[in-house]
Amino acid sequence: MNIVLTGFMASGKTTVAKILGGLCGFEVIDTDKYIEDGEGMTVNAIFDKYGELYFRTLERAAIEKVSKLDNKIIATGGGAVTDPDNISRLRENGIIFNLSPDFEVIEKRIEEAAKTRPLMRGQSIDKIRERFISRQKFYDDCDYKINIGADDVPERTAMIIMEKFKQKVNF
Ligand code: S3P
Which of 30, 55, 60, 90 has the fewest Cβ atoms nearer than 10 Å? Predict the structure, then answer.
């Protein structure tokens, strides 16, 4: 069984995934990184050169592949959940955790996060908040939702996920 992490951009999936990897020994696969390695281009460059739809096709193919693996921690891009096929594939062999930060957590990270995220780059805070809100219905469909407040550390999030995963799969 895989541990799958979903969540809005800059919700801390990559950091939590690394900590989880240390806790349970599973290899971490970050789908954005997987796509970047496959294309030899950054996500920013893929969006610039080919557009979002093309990126979504790559994301879908990446998820189709990695969801067939076992005992991995799969950190997905923030928009992966918007394609129901991605979720059903990931669910076949994984427990899907949603990192659910309060918007103020994201807000504090925007300046740094926008450097590598085309959907944050040059966007107003209102637009980012709009996208954050419109994504919630997809995140609500995950198996577990972990709320993250402004004072929470990623180690806590990782521990909660680990405990829930252990209970669920008898790990
Ligand atoms: C996206 C999130 C990004 C990346 C791409 C699109 C999104 O991943 O997949 O820029 O639509 O929310 P992170 O969630 O890791 O930033």
Answer: 60
Structure tokens at 145: 């939702």
pLDDT in tens, 145-157: 999 999 999 999 9
Q: Kindly give the number of the ligand 1 atom that is closest to the alpha carbon of 135.
A: 12
Domain assignment of residue 116, given as a range: 2-166
Nearest CA to ligand 1 atom 9: 77
Number of domains in the chain: 1
How confident is the model at residue 126, as a pLDDT? 97
Please indicate, yes or no, if residue 136 is contained in any of the structural domains: yes
- Classify residue 42 by its DSSP letter: -
Instruction: Quickly tell me which residue has 């966007």 as its tokens.
Output: 123
pTM beyond 0.90, yes or no: yes
**pLDDT tens digits along 105-130:** 999 999 999 999 999 999 999 999 99
Separation CA 89–CA 81 (nearest Å): 11
Residue 144 lies in a domain: yes
Q: Whose CA is nearest to atom 11 of ligand 1?
A: 79
- How far away, in angstroms, is 9 Cα from ligand 1 center? 5
Domain membership flag for residue 171: no
For residue 10, give Cα distances in angstroms to 22, 75, 83, 107, 137: 21, 12, 20, 9, 18
Q: Compute the distance from residue 160 Cα to the ligand 1 centre, in Å.
A: 23
Residue 79 beta carbon below 6 angstroms from any ligand 1 atom: yes
Q: For 32-59, what is each residue's pLDDT tens digit?
A: 999 999 999 999 999 999 999 999 999 9
* 133 assigned to some structural domain: yes
